[in-house]
Amino acid sequence: QQQQQQQQQQQQQAAPGAGGPLTAAALAAAAPSAQKQMLGEKLYPLVMKLQPQLAGKITGMMLEMDNSELLLILESEQQLRNKVFEAMRVIEQRTG
Fold first, then answer.
1. Which residues in the chain land under pLDDT 70?
2. Cys-Cys link to 58, which of 16, 36, 79, 87 (CB 3.0-4.6 A)?
3. Is 30 left (phi over 0), alpha (psi -120 to 50) or beta?
């Protein structure tokens, strides 16, 4: 049981940014497969505030971008707004 508790603590420590801002160091420490998940979990609520109806689609589109660019977007509300607006234009073009 004590070993289980230690494993849980290690897992919690291995998931940085769960509550606070996501840093490049925290992202680099994560497995590549987990990096997009971590970015998506931070991006989605922010996109949701701007475009609730299309938040999932827009977040998915944004996750195709480079991780370093996504970190910049997370740090700047204006960058986020620009990318959401850009994604909306792409969606509108696709749907005609």
1. 1-19
2. 87
3. beta
